[in-house]
# Entry
Amino acid sequence: MLRSCTAGPPGSLRLALPAAAPAVRRRLRECAARIPEAGAVLDILEKCPERQKKGEFPVVVFEGLDATGKTTVTQSVKDALGAVLLRSPPACISQWRTIFDEEPTPIRRAFYAAGNYILASEIAKASTQAPVIVDRYWHSTAAYTIATETDGNIQNLPPDDDAVYKWPEDLLKPDLVLLLTVSPEERTRRLEGRGLERTKEEAELEANSLFRRRIEESYRRMVNPACQEVDASPSKEEVFKTVLQLIKNHCAL
Ligand SMILES: Nc1ncnc2c1ncn2[C@@H]1O[C@H](COP(=O)(O)OP(=O)(O)OP(=O)(O)O)[C@@H](O)[C@H]1O
Ligand SMILES: Cc1cn([C@H]2C[C@H](O)[C@@H](COP(=O)(O)O)O2)c(=O)[nH]c1=O
# Structure
């Protein structure tokens, strides 16, 4: 498995993170004989029109580490705005997620990237009818890949202007991306309070504060669209109010 971006060849991270739909399709096609579910994802992806366009309603994405409050706040914002709530990976492929989570990096990341392109077609359609709220999108795919494929502290991340922080040219862009952040202690409290089964990555997040910092820093380095950071440590009601105001200011709702 590819590990360190700094120790490996310069293109190693690029290899882990497919940067456009043709690369995603190629990667799924290459493993479809061994993994039938890759063929199933590919079938869905190939039915999605290329280069999706947003409708006239705003599209707002929520990003952040696990248990920062995305599910909680997206549900409230959806209700308040009469919005459509979507998530990555989209429901139509999420039953295969555990299979891909066990695969080597390039295949696993191709699954999540494919999810974003499929999600884009859902966003395109929904945003012609109502505002769209999205729980994780490309920034999560990129940030988790970058953090997994590098080691140590944030100095080992690719430099600020690296192409890994850029939005894929052929992927529908949201109007606003809000990055929810809380202190590690508050996150741990929320995780414990929730008590759900954790993925391997979530367990690693708990054990490895450097990994957590690499993810957050990668989110912060994403550009066009960049993430707007929101302190999500106040109460649910306060976070909701802050977020709603940001959306109203930015999207003229
Ligand atoms: N502002 C808040 N103050 C206190 N607790 C909160 C707040 N927001 C969410 N929580 C609680 O923290 C836990 C995690 O929240 P939530 O499931 O919304 O996070 P998440 O970011 O969607 O997590 P994941 O990415 O793992 O799905 C839940 O138990 C939720 O009730
Ligand atoms: C969308 C997406 C998710 N992941 C990983 C990162 C975390 O371990 C979990 C969180 O998923 P949840 O459904 O929000 O609990 O999935 C990823 O690695 N890449 C992605 O694109």
About this structure: Residues 105-126 form the longest helix (22 residues). Residues 1-10 have pLDDT under 50 and may be disordered. The domain at 13-250 is CATH 3.40.50.300 (Rossmann fold).
